[in-house]
Design a protein that fits this description.
Structural class: alpha+beta
Number of helices: 6
Strand content: 15-25%
Number of strands: 19
Radius of gyration: 28 Å
Length: 319
Amino acid sequence: MIIKKTFKTIAISLLLLATTTSSSAQDLLARQAPVDRRMKAVDTLALKTIQERENITSPAADLYDSWDNTYAHRATNNMPEHFKIDLRHFCMPTPSRVVTSNFGSRWGRQHKGLDIKVYIGDTIRAAFSGKVRVVKYNPGGYGYYVVIRHPNGLETIYGHLSKQLVSENQVVRAGEPIALGGNTGRSTGSHLHFETRLCGVALNPALLFDFRNQDVTGDYYIYNKETYDKESAEATQLRGKVGNGGYTKELVNGGTVGSYKNKMAMAHNNSEALYHKVKSGETLQSIAKKRGVSIEDICRLNNISKSMRVMPGQILRYS
């Protein structure tokens, strides 16, 4: 009888101990969960800060093999078939709405930018935040000019200036004064020669900037190698029909003329399967930006999660 009672006492004690331990463990986990979430948030913020700092130090480093101040532009081997360019957080380089010369064939040669009417001494501003790569003088071409490389992959060139207000390797913000309008170099009158280049290849600024309405054509521009030439020609033709600018945001979004972004998206979605081999230091974010797709698309096509860490040599489908 005594033994039976003793066993019963021990059993009850063990049960209470187990319940207490389990409860304490659960309390500990409950207290730890918010800490883990905060630590994850801190890690994400720290990573974002590091990435932003690296992008300022070396903008669009995944697209360009080098940082060289000796040349105005040079085509690289990294030009993608498709690329999504972020046009948000922009500033028009000049308040002038008058385009005096289009992108394309002119006087028997290719004109690689737009000429915008400005007067000597007018303020010229950085179109996007970035880092100044070149500040030089070219008497037979750009005259005094500035080249800025931006984190969105573009390089913008500002030519025929009367004065440069920035220096090479200087970090600038969108809208910051970088120069004064002029009439230097190969120029027949005061104006701003404005170029937008991706991996050294000139893109028609009329596809991105709407000078007539002092706006960009959308939050993003999706470069598609297969359809680019047709879109550029159409944007140039529209200048004579819709004022001095090329595409407008209304034309792009409404699709009343061209609807080129819808066509590009269809071409991109219907293209054959494309793959990316991961290099050292690359992340899902950098790969998505380089290939002009979303992280969600890469995760869906490869059946992986956003939190997955990619490894060098890994093959990822991105289209």
